[in-house]
Amino acid sequence: MNEIRAITTFVRAAALGSLRGAAVDQGISPQAASHAVMQLEKALGVRLFHRTTRKLSLTEEGQRLLDSVEPALAMLSSALDEARHSKEDVAGMLRVSAPRAFGLPVLWPYFEEFQKRYQNVQLEVQFDDQFTDLVTDRSDVGFRGGPPPSGGSIARRLVPIQLIVCASPDYIDRNGAPRTIDELAQHRCTGYRRANTGKLAQWQFRIGDEIVYRDVPAAICVNDTELETQAVLSGLGIGQLGSFNATMHIRSGRLIPLLMQHATEYGTIYIYYKHRTEQSLRVKTFIDFMVERMAGNRNFFLDPSELRDAQQPQPKRAAKRRG
After folding, report:
1. How far apart are CA 215 and CA 222, in angstroms?
2. Which of 68, 159, 232, 244 has the fewest Cβ atoms nearer than 10 Å?
3. Is the confidence at residue 162, as pLDDT, over 60?
4. What pLDDT is attached to residue 104?
5. What is the C-alpha separation between 226 and 71, in angstroms, rounded?
6. What is the C-alpha separation between 246 and 16, in angstroms, rounded?
7. Given this model, what pLDDT does residue 275 score?
8. pLDDT digits (tens, 9 = 90+) for 92-106
9. Predicted TM-score (pTM) of this structure
10. How far is CA 323 from CA 10, 170, 188, 232, 234, in A?
11. Could you give the domains of the chain?
């Protein structure tokens, strides 16, 4: 027995005084309405209606049941309407997860813009360097840098992540610029300690067709990409920065790219989410909003012509060894 259907039929029959009227109201046959109420009476072990050829009236047990179920049905109807309207309104809770590395410098300004535009959305943001399983963590949308997420999620490519060795003009004026990877040992370098492992990130270089990893001693070590970028901008050392942090500073001349013949593309920033048929309008709107603003956004990476120009030899300066 479909208990919800049977109770709804009972309530409508009581309100209309007719099983036939309840059947028309619900879009079912009179036989189906009568059967539903009879099944409900059988399950409860009581009669709910006094039936005559002209009149349908509640028994005492039927009246008590009606008094009990009407408020609950009204709440259920309201909840269903709210869920139904969530597909039509850009409103409600939206849970988003992203890595700390580019969450604040890259994504947060767009989150702010979205929140100002859609003020009926309650945005809950979690910055976490661990990969987020959307189902387990009850997130609606996730962002990830590196290879595309696995596990059944839909992933859309936003921007590439390049790893670029760079320094400030002031640092180069004082200390010169390394011409080879090995010459980095003669310089002060910054380091990034991964929050999820506690380990100092190795630097990546392209040598021919291979990617090699090197441990570069850090004169200053941080666990935040924005802090590392600021350390390099301040002339504290040479750093290998993600293009999402370095690109605009390189274009403005505040940072000088180095060793570009060895630059690597670490991966891609992806947005990932569950199948769109399962999404509310607020989730679909957020995904479309972020894709529109970030997909191929040149604020966050150097295009091929810029990479070629950056690979031109830098003016040679005498390197000063650390004493």
Report:
1. 15
2. 68
3. yes
4. 87
5. 55
6. 71
7. 76
8. 999 999 988 888 889
9. 0.67
10. 91, 19, 11, 20, 20
11. 3-85 (1.10.10.10), 92-159+268-300 (3.40.190.10), 162-265+302-310 (3.40.190.10)
